[in-house]
Amino acid sequence: MTLADQYLSDGCAISFELFPPKTPEGIDSLCQNVERLMQFQPKYFTCTYGAGGSSQRTTLDVLERVKQITQLPVASHLTCVGSNTDQLCEYLQRATDLGVDYIVALRGDPPKGSTEFSVTEGGLRYANELVELIRERFSDLGIAVAGYPEVHQEAVDAKTDLENLKRKVDAGADIVITQLFYENADFYRFRDDCVRAGIHVPIIPGVLPVTNFKQAQRIAGMCKAAIPASLETEMTKDDSAEHQFRVGVEHARKQTIDLIENGVPGIHYYVLNKSEAAAELLDGLQLAGQA
């Protein structure tokens, strides 16, 4: 089954994103949360890695464990940062040897301390070049690329951002997974713009259940995702952990229900290696493959 085929069935297919823990205990905890998330019958799991590829080995270890536990396809993030094409191909070969099924192909953010992306000697400048490399040398791998409902922070405007996305899709991407957003209207506008631009692969919204307002502000600042005034008002009424968890999860649940009602083929959840928020917001919802 190809990556795009995951979204052909009726209902809403879901997937979860993880990140590599820093300790063996963290990996054990992550795996326990993965087992809890299996009750929602996800189609696959993805795993990021640290800035500049600092945790690539741990990412592959995590994906190997997750695949053993779940028997599901797994996807590794891969960026152009800090690697030449030979090093990118070495990583792709290791990933393939370990049974990784898909790649989330990204240009990558500038390394910590830098304000702009710089090309590694012998490396790649754009994500579409990474997609082309994968298609040419590792054609069996499925490829997801990133889309930005509120426009990438480095793009000069929405039109240019959309043109960049189309180049990635035309290079061979199977699906688009979006950056997180808090207003569904931003996603619907983006989806419509993609169709008008001739992008016809599945567009998968990315949702982060917010459980802490300070965390939400920090993440929103990093990825240019606006926090609705109504969500900010509700979360800041009470700074207790219980209140902020409840408000944030309820917001993500309403987002999810509205997205399903508006026909999205799937949703990708940024779960921050935890299962409580995702389990609460997904409880009782009609998802792909569930009775």
Automatic annotation (TrEMBL):
InterPro entries: FAD-linked_oxidoreductase-like (IPR029041), Mehydrof_redctse-like (IPR003171), MTHF_reductase_bac (IPR004620). Pfam families: MTHFR. Keywords: Amino-acid biosynthesis, FAD, Flavoprotein, Methionine biosynthesis, NAD, Oxidoreductase. The keyword Transferase does not apply. GO terms for molecular function: methylenetetrahydrofolate reductase [NAD(P)H] activity. Signal peptide: none annotated. Pathway: One-carbon metabolism; tetrahydrofolate interconversion; Amino-acid biosynthesis; L-methionine biosynthesis via de novo pathway. Gene3D superfamilies: 3.20.20.220. SUPFAM superfamilies: FAD-linked oxidoreductase (SSF51730). It catalyses: (6S)-5-methyl-5,6,7,8-tetrahydrofolate + NAD(+) = (6R)-5,10-methylene-5,6,7,8-tetrahydrofolate + NADH + H(+). CDD domains: MTHFR. Belongs to the methylenetetrahydrofolate reductase family. This is Methylenetetrahydrofolate reductase. The lineage of its organism: Bacteria, Pseudomonadati, Planctomycetota, Planctomycetia, Pirellulales. The gene is metF.
